[in-house]
Amino acid sequence: MELSQIINELGEDREHYFNATTPPLIQSSNFSYSSVAEMARHLDHEDEIPFYTRGVNPTTDMLQQKLAALEGTEKAIVVGSGSAAMAMAVLSQVKQGDHIICVRKPYSWTNKLLDILLPRFGVETTFVDGRDPKNFEEAKQHNTRLVILESPNSWTFEMQDVPAITKWTKTHGLVTIMDNSYCSPILYNPAKDGVDIIIHSATKYISGHSDAVAGVICCNHDNYEKIFSSEFMTLGPAISPFNSWLLLRGLRTLPLRIRQSGETTMKLVEYLHNQEKVDQVFFPFHPSHEQYELARKLFKGPAGQFTITLKATDEDKIEGFCNNLNAFQLACSWGGFESLQFPAMTLYRSKNYNKTTFPPNMVRLYTGLEEFDYLKNSFDKALEMI
Ligand SMILES: *Cc1c(COP(=O)(O)O)cnc(C)c1O
Fold first, then answer.
1. CB distance 325 to 383 below 8 Å
2. Beta strands in 276-380 (DSSP E)
3. Is 173 exposed, middle or buried (0-12, 13-18, 19+ CB in 10 A)?
């Protein structure tokens, strides 16, 4: 199905709601029936039709249909956060005594899940440099069940040769999960390269307006059944119908927003490469990135996250730069309408994150929907502080 048809039409049954062009927000926890027989029929299909909103809700279901189609998977389950999506996807595939291989430096709460929470239940993880597929083969143990990838990781953007890795996992019966938040389903569809389960922080590009926290798991029918009837219904990370409705609205402009964010980032990265006070620029779609060819092979185009290191060691100067980069709000997250900066200095000063391996002169940036000149002028001003 074509992209525009998925975004504007799929799952929308307008004659059932007064021909409204916009989807209805079914803000209801439960659904009632006119007879015992009808209620019994719905109860038996609570994984397919609305019965109780911890399971299926019509507004969320419309969103799930679109997200599955965008990722090219049979099913999608939308949940209350990206972290919940990763946790449930992982839990659904492992049992006590199993072993996981994950790319090094994954998203911080994925790291905590694998490094702290799962060992309590007898599941161990080996972290490998994912840039070389051989590292996965070397880390394999007799009890390895699962391989976790990220497309790419945030901050330094290391990527994996996904087709090469899935070719190997399939010959050994291993399951692959990929965090595809960075690319969104617009720039990359890991299922086409053989990945079994794809998760997103829908808080980021899919929502796009910095107003809703959400996650999605995209997978085949079997994994959907498995996750729905176990992790999803017992842990209960249901999204509110209102947030699903916001995400449906966000989806309408997803391709446009990504294009704008990626195009402006290309220009900013080029400009920053020519600034003498900037040391390194990390961005997968610049020829200077060591995996540039792989990025071009896997992804349809550039996204809006990039990282710089400044030619400065003095904390006051780094802080001066960040505090004066006014067009980029100091905030976590990314994928919304607004440009953002996340200085590594904040990690050093945090009790919880001070074990970071990122240098203090590193700043992660995200390009929103502002004009290039507006953002460039802000850099000009901030770089004067160094
Ligand atoms: C934000 C993020 C997550 C976690 O998603 P939440 O919606 O914040 O729970 C996972 N992976 C990546 C790459 C992220 O950027």
1. no
2. 278-282, 305-310, 329-330, 340-343, 362-366
3. exposed
* pTM for the model: 0.97
At residue 66 the predicted structure's pLDDT band, cuts being 50, 70 and 90, is very high
Cα separation of 51 and 44, whole Å?
9
Those residues whose C-beta lies under 8 Å from the C-beta of residue 250, and which sit 6 or more positions away, are: 206, 207, 208, 209, 212
Q: Residues 89, 301, 75, CA angle at the centre, nearest 5°?
A: 30
Q: Hey, whose CA ends up nearest to atom 7 of ligand 1?
A: 82
Measured from the CB, is residue 205 less than 6 Å from ligand 1? no
In the β-sheet with 278-282, what is the strand arrangement from edge to edge?
Answer: 278-282, 305-310, 362-366, 340-343, 329-330
Structure confidence at residue 259 (pLDDT): 98
- Strand segments, DSSP code E, in 5-129 are 75-79, 99-103, 124-128
**Could you check whether the bond before residue 359 is cis, i.e. omega within 30 degrees of 0?**
no
Q: What is the bridge-based pairing of β-strands 278-282 and 215-219?
A: unpaired
DSSP 3-state of 200: strand
Do residues 216 and 201 touch, judged by C-beta distance below 8 A? no
Using DSSP's 3-state secondary structure scheme, residue 39 falls into: helix
CB of residue 204 inside a 6 A radius of ligand 1: yes
> For residue 181, which atom of ligand 1 is closest to its CA?
13
In whole angstroms, give the CA distance from residue 150 to residue 126: 15
pLDDT above 90: residue 133? yes
- Percentage of the chain exceeding pLDDT 90: 96
User: What's the pLDDT score for residue 58?
Assistant: 97
Q: Which two tokens stand for residue 303?
A: 């996204």
pLDDT tens-digit map of 221-242: 999 999 999 999 999 999 999 9
Q: What value does the mean pLDDT of the chain take? A: 97
- Hey, which of 109, 153, 305 would you mutate to test ligand 1's pocket, going by the most ligand atoms within 8 Å of its Cβ? 109
Please check the confidence at residue 352 and state whether its pLDDT lies above 90. Answer: no
